[in-house]
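Please check this protein record:
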Amino acid sequence: MDIVIPIITLIIGLVGGFFIGVFYLRKQLEKMQSNPDMLQKMAKQMGYNLNGKQMQRAQQMMKNQQPGAKMPQPQQHPARKSSGRRK
């Protein structure tokens, strides 16, 4: 019993920390959508230098994304059927 309580506390702390982190990250992304300076700063940290047109496109992409929405899968050409093996 002495080891069960710390393990349960650890699990609850990890789950709580995960959800707090997700909440914080979503808030930061929402702020970034309306603040082009933050978006430019993030791009520079990743090694990209965005011009005005690229910046507008990035902001538009972020606004169009809905929280929890899945990314669209690339469509396969109808003549090419993937069998899972390469020839």
